[in-house]
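I hope you will forgive my troubling you with a question about protein structure. The matter concerns a single protein, recorded as an amino acid sequence and a row of backbone structure tokens. Please examine both parts with care and let me know of anything in them that strikes you as inconsistent. Here, with my thanks, is the record as I have it:
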Amino acid sequence: MNNDDQEMRPEYPAELIKSGVRGKYAKRYREGTNVVTIDPELNKLFPSAEAVNRALRQYAQEHKLLP
């Protein structure tokens, strides 16, 4: 089977595919995650989650927001 083939393989019955529910776990996923996008110019300053967390932790400590 090549990548251009649009046919479903026989081992995947159509009934199984049609029985799925779109977005079934979307609410649960959103409740368990805290994903935030930052503007591109900030991405240059904070290229990783570690950098963002470090900056936020420092800000929170300086403003006495953390115990």
User: Anything to note?
Assistant: Residues 49-62 form the longest helix (14 residues). The mean pLDDT is 84. The helical segments are 14-18, 26-31, 40-45, 49-62.
